[in-house]
């Protein structure tokens, strides 16, 4: 199935607007997760109850992704994204300003449901826009997300440094991001290269069922990548301080370094896919990521451990964007654009599965065995990606590897 020719200027506008949407989401999510201790203190959430609050967000996000899979049969993903992104921003502000624990729980529930729909629809648009370009651009969108995460984490640090209340930190940011989200939503390029102003109805006729078993290798890669990512985000500081004997200040550095190297890996990743192909890039990412975990596990001191977390950022950075891209391409070539959207929504659920499993798994292994040994488990799971790497390079998944011509006019 061939994507229609689309004016290059329209595609460029769509690419920039979607990158800004990824940036907004990266900033919002970082502002939430980096201020969890402050949220806990504000509402008096006990240490025993906090894991319930934290687990509820990805569980509800998975529900939101499932709902979005059904919703995009009738409404284009661009419209879904245009509606839910302001909701996510407002839910963040509500988390920081409501007056009770019950209302904070409701705000977090709204955040989780809407962020699941946002992640799914945002990646649907990325996959369809890459299809219209005919070459790899998906990593660039996720680079924008990483950049937003760095900005959001920096704002959160500034808020903590200046002892700003959560409301005073969140509301000015949301006051900027909500209008920006509404503005960029006007230029989304949707399924098949049709602009947001087109018909909201999907293709006529029944949607061909998409066999989940055929997506299973990609679902496993997605889950394993997020187990690795959640290990870094939740355990890097504790590992450096408690296992490698760093200072408290130095222990905050590995995750920031990881975020920066993730950004750098994604910024150049599309060039690597175009030059060497998706399979080679995914294999290299898995090897480098696993090597990072090995260095962390064997590190004799804090600086060696930091080098391992640096490698992890470069390695893991390419896996998630390429997994979304491969699933969308596979489904599109077999069943069309609606099936591609459904594949992305289903795959997105395993984002949250990995996030839910990763942190408790490492914590349990660390307590029962050792934290050095615990780091070998995500290392082994990331290496399993090598077994499934061919799933990224089948004929149905060979965009952006130098063998496809762009299908659009004057694309920059």
Automatic annotation (TrEMBL):
Membrane-topology annotation of the record: Multi-pass membrane protein
Keyword terms: Membrane, Transmembrane, Transmembrane helix
One annotated GO molecular function: transmembrane transporter activity
Transmembrane portions of the chain: 16-36, 48-68, 80-98, 137-157, 169-189, 210-228, 280-303, 309-332, 344-363, 369-389
One annotated Gene Ontology cellular component of this protein: plasma membrane
Domain of life: Bacteria
Subcellular location(s) of the protein: Cell membrane
Domain Major facilitator superfamily (MFS) profile intervals: 215-412
PROSITE patterns from the UniProt entry: MFS
UniProt name for this protein: MFS transporter
């Amino acid at each position: 199935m061939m994507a229609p020719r689309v004016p290059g200027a329209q595609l460029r506008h769509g690419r920039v607007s979607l990158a800004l949407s990824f940036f907004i989401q990266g900033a919002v999510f970082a502002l939430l997760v980096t201020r969890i201790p402050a949220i806990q203190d504000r509402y008096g959430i006990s240490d025993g109850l906090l894991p319930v609050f934290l687990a509820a967000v990805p569980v509800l996000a998975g529900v939101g992704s499932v709902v979005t899979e059904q919703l995009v049969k009738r409404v284009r993903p661009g419209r879904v994204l245009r509606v839910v992104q302001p909701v996510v921003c407002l839910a963040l502000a509500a988390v920081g300003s409501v007056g009770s624990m019950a209302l904070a729980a409701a705000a977090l529930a709204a955040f989780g449901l809407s962020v699941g729909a946002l992640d799914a629809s945002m990646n649907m648009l990325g996959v369809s826009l890459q299809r219209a370009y005919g070459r790899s651009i998906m990593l660039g969108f996720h680079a924008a997300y990483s950049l937003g995460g760095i900005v959001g984490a920096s704002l959160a640090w500034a808020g903590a440094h200046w002892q700003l209340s959560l409301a005073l930190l969140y509301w000015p940011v949301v006051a900027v991001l909500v209008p920006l989200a509404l503005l960029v939503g006007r230029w989304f390029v949707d399924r098949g290269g049709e602009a947001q102003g087109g018909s909201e109805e999907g293709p006529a006729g029944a949607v061909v069922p998409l066999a989940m078993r055929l997506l299973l290798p990609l679902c496993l890669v997605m889950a394993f990548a997020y187990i690795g990512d959640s290990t870094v985000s939740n355990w890097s500081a504790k590992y450096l301080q408690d296992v490698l004997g760093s200072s408290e200040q130095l222990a905050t550095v590995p995750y920031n370094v990881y975020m920066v190297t993730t950004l750098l890996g994604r910024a150049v990743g599309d060039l690597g896919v175009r030059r060497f192909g998706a399979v080679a890039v995914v294999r290299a990412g898995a090897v480098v990521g696993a090597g990072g975990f090995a260095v962390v596990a064997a590190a004799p001191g804090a600086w060696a451990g930091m080098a391992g977390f640096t490698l992890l950022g470069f390695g893991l950075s390419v896996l998630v964007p390429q997994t979304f891209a491969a699933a969308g391409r596979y489904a599109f070539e077999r069943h069309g654009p609606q099936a591609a959207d459904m594949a992305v929504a289903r795959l997105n659920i395993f984002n949250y599965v990995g996030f839910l499993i990763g942190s408790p798994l490492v914590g349990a292994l660390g307590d029962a065995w050792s934290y050095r040994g615990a780091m070998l488990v995500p290392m082994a799971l990331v290496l399993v990606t090598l077994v499934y790497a061919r799933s990224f390079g089948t004929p149905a998944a060979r965009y952006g590897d130098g063998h496809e011509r762009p299908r659009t006019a004057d694309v920059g």
